[in-house]
Amino acid sequence: MKELVILSGKGGTGKTSLTAAFAGLESSLMLCDADVDAADLHLIMAPDVQETHDFVGGNEAVIAPDRCTGCGTCLELCRFDAIDENQGEYTVDALNCEGCGVCVDMCPESAIDFPPKTCGQWFVSHTRFGPMVHARLGIAEENSGRLVALVREQAKKRARDAHIDLILTDGPPGIGCPVIASIGQASAILIVAEPTVSGIHDMKRVGELAAHFKIPAMVCINKFDLNLDQTRAIETIAREKNILVAGKIPFDPVFTKAMIQIQTLLEYDDTCPAAKAVRNIWETVMTHPAMKLERLM
Amino acid sequence: MIISIASGKGGTGKTTVAANLAASLNQPVTVLDCDVEEPNLHLFLHPEIQSREKVIAPVPEIDLDRCTFCKKCMDICRFNAIAVTANTVVTFPELCHSCGGCTVICPENAVTEKERILGTVETGTVPLPDMNFGQGLLDIGQVMVPPVIRQVKSHRAPDQGITLIDAPPGTSCPVIAAMKDTDFVILVTEPTPFGLNDLKLAVETVRLLNIPHGLIINRAGMGDDAVYAYAKDKNLPVLMEIPYDKAIAQAYSKGDLIISQQEDYKEKFQTLYKKICFLADSEKCAP
Q: What residues of chain B lie within 8 A of the CB of A57, using their CB?
């Protein structure tokens, strides 16, 4: 089985639009939306949800007022500023609570409960391109990395069961916890870069992250004609870092038009230059040695 | 007055708004880039960095001479950062949340803490009148983002000064860390289905934190009108619109400010600040 993860570092460079467009180019694949924080792939895939599961992402401390003697041990030990004291009454600030349970274990009166917390939901769906595993993290919740890992685990399991050989994963922006959770054991990543000062800066950092975890990386340049100097700069950096440039897509409002129609770029306009570029990129990506290698997952 | 600039979806123009607003104000301002995974503000403001500090998190170190392998540290750790076997202890610093539980629970005082570096905070000045700058930079491979953000925020302007915070995308802990305890949140969106979907999540987040907020529609005219209906329905004030304009996108691609290309935008950003002062607690506004 192989898994390609679409990343960018910088947000808004076109990860999800490209993931959706690629989906139509394979006869058999599993889709996985690993951007659980601000998931958008479902807006184009219009998934028919078959299964809904709660994501229990840890526990939350709750002080029982009838058992609390107001000794203040929890306030003293909490390193996350999550215990509030008001005239001898102690409460937990749920937004600050890290779920470490130190107050729970150290309370001399055992006055702090630690119920499991539902932090979101994950789904298994049918789409017109194949099955899809996706999720929604609750607002202001923690543990997005764990939910990303869970979504990818489920995508692998279900791909195996259905004898699907390719997983296409839409990744989150950034280089932190959810991104690291989205690339472990992936066959390769494809970085969607844009030819802007920010796009270059962020692509370099996500490239370094891939190198750090020894995941093969490729790059494609979206809106390449917006700034040809910056496009050349991306190509130079990619060569230096041994990152394959899989292709370039012209600046074209057709992506937005397709999105509004709930269609992929190729469904909306199969013949425009951007659509041709997307096809070429996919062909190049799939001939990369990392995408030929069978990985045990 | 502390104003944070957030969006839900990435790439909608947070940094553009932060940089241009900062450079349009005719008063002292401190700008802080709290998108510590991918900080970009420096590319537009070209600060001179005068000081660098490491962001440190404590992680456990086990004294094996004292350790009796009782496993209490492993049991209290909810993050699987300590594994105890019959005759050794292994720690996983990258999983540690620095809660200190292991040091507190150890009956043999065998757990002390050593420092792990999460990233760097840089501060300096921008070569524009009265502008201070700060940014965080998460080290490659690190996952603990909120402590880096909190350390950047410790460099906010004193008392009455204006602080602008460029927040990361999303709706989870890094965004909360950036927006918490700020006086106003500017939400930047683009009028597309993706932009609107993520804006809705961002609005829920801001309303959970109970911070006054308003909307900037960037790339207006790019997509559809659904965001306007949503804003009306949710009583969300539209503070400003920036049109969908290839010239603006090209200026951005080179690291130029809109106000240095189109002079009239300076006044528009000044008007934006006045609107924010009207909507936020007015006592926070500098005269």
A: none
Q: Between chains, do A38 and B246 touch, taking CB under 8 Å as contact?
A: no
Phi, psi of A104 (to 5 degrees): -65, -50
- Whether the CB of B56 is below 8 Å from some CB of chain A: the reply is no
Instruction: Compute mean pLDDT per 10 residues along chain B, 287 residues long, and list them.
Output: 96 97 95 98 98 97 97 96 95 94 97 97 95 97 94 92 96 93 97 97 96 97 96 97 94 96 95 95 67
Contact at CB, A176 and B141, closer than 8 angstroms: no
Q: Which of B36, B72, B194 to mutate to test the interface with A (most CBs of A within 10 A)?
A: B194
**B283 close contact with A: CB closer than 8 A:** no
Helix (H, G, I), strand (E, B) or coil at A65: coil
On whether residue B41 sits in a domain, the answer given is yes
Report all structural domains of chain A as residue ranges with CATH numbers, in order of start. 2-56+119-292 (3.40.50.300), 61-114 (3.30.70.20)
Q: What is the mean pLDDT of residues A226-238?
A: 97
Predicted TM-score (pTM) of this structure? 0.95
If asked whether residues B205 and B270 sit together in one domain, one would say: yes
Do residue B140 and residue A226 have CB atoms under 8 angstroms apart?
Answer: no
**Portion 112-131 of B in contact with A at CB < 8 A:** none
Q: Are B250 and A260 inside 8 Å of each other by CB?
A: no
Lookup: tokens for A180: 């690291």
Which residues, 6 or more positions from A102, have their beta carbon under 8 angstroms from its beta carbon? A77, A78, A79, B76, B99, B100, B101, B104
CA distance B120 to B53: 6
What ipTM goes with this model? 0.94
Query: What is the number of structural domains in chain B?
Result: 2
